[in-house]
């Protein structure tokens, strides 16, 4: 009986130790990210572009549960995933294909930064609001 108990304790200890090395993505961050966002502004180096949120133009990026993302209402622009530590957003394909650092992620804001060719770009996203066409 002692041998059986020792074997069970050893197996349990091994399972606990191995589970500590299993990559786990922060489900809370995924839940916050999966939705439709719209850009408020983008900062590229010294330049800032603020978007007119009431100009009637469709500007959006939607992160879907299936790991795909869509830009401006297109069916699929590429794929996305979070790094194991939840600090990076890896987007493949499309205009946003890059590794982004998550600076802020809440229900009210998603701020991500990437760097290409020695320059950084920070994208400030807010929850999506459908555009209203302006009367002419």
UniProtKB/TrEMBL annotation:
Keywords: Signal. It comes from the Bacteria. Residues 1-22 form the signal peptide. This is Lipocalin-like domain-containing protein. The lineage of its organism: Bacteria, Pseudomonadati, Bacteroidota, Cytophagia, Cytophagales.
